[in-house]
Fold:
Amino acid sequence: MINKIKQKLVWKYTFVMLFMLMIVFVGNFFLINHIIMERRTSSIEKYLIEEVDEAVPVFLQYRTNPDLEPIIHMIDNDNENAINNFVYWIDNNGRLIMSSGLSSKMTKEKLILMNSWNHPNKALVNINITDEDGDTWNLVMTADDAYYNGEFLGKVFVGKNITILQIIQDKYLSFISVLIIIMMGVTFIFADRMAGRAMIPIIESFDKQNKFVADASHEMRTPLSVMLSSIDLIKTSSKDSVELKEGIKTEILNMRSLVNELLDLARFDINNSHIRYKPFNLNDAVKDVIKSISVMAKNKDIKIHNNGKDITINADEKKIKQVIYILLDNAIKYSDDNKNIYVALEEDKTGVLFKIKDEGIGIPKDEQSLVFDRFYRVNKARSRSIGGSGLGLAIAAEIIKLHNSAISVESDEKSGSEFSFKLKK
Structure:
């Protein structure tokens, strides 16, 4: 499943990055092409207006003197890639009056083209012509009529040899095509690395989920096994049935507690745990929790010292009491008899700091970052004997996280542990 997710991410990243590259390359190509076309159009249109103005008096001169020779300024350049402007004046009888530009090889082809010209005036036309040597010329042309006092004198043709521009454009397209193919490979490798990084939290979450399911199954299997064994004993013997029933009841209560804790964590995971903010006295909440847990502390001759003062905060009272209970419960369980637990409230401008310090077994430094993981227990052998599921601190951490804060722990294996969290007023 993990590999399938990664493959989907790789192809998704590849498609997105290639799509963005295509937009950049194609957009750049069309932008450059548009700029070239705009400049080419404006220059040719201006050239045409100038040539029409110059052609009118020449047309009139040739009409009065029909024996005059055509004015020819031919660029004898056999390179079809040379960028040249050209102009042709054709009178109303189809006679060439003036020509300028391009190679002499193109004269015949040009005259044939202009005598068969059927495009609208001032329309830009792209034309490909092959000369007598088999060379192809890419031209852009336009034409307009020359009039004098409303009388048609002839037609003026102007244009530009854009063969070299077309070659550059074709090479640029080829370059982009090759570059896109190369970028596909590079993008795929990059996408694979990105997907690998994106999969890290997914893999970690998947591993945690598997561990969570395995731990939950193990925790539930223990009370079920005890209950089944007790039931079998009740069936075979009537002795100590009351004690066995009490044992079953205890295990059922333990299982119910475990299920409730699992449900709490499930609500946190799906963001379905709502915080109901309201003002309440935090010190009163601490006193209520101490009172509810006093029997457990008395059984171990543990004294709980509360030096807190009355402070009103805005939070979810029920959930904060749950956190305080979890921390006190842990402090009592992991402390030996005749020890002390200290609860303190410290107020400043930003909020209220809650501290609870015990004189228990402490937590090794390399395990302090793990105590809020689900089902994690310090000194697992002792944890089994004192009970609990290993979910309490995980639930407490989630509740404080919902209040936009975090629980921290400082511990020493010789002097015990101190848990603290800060809440806004």
About this structure: Residues 10 and 191 are 5 Å apart (CA to CA). The chain has a mean pLDDT of 78. The first strand starts at residue 71 and ends at 73. The chain has two domains: 2-171, 274-423.
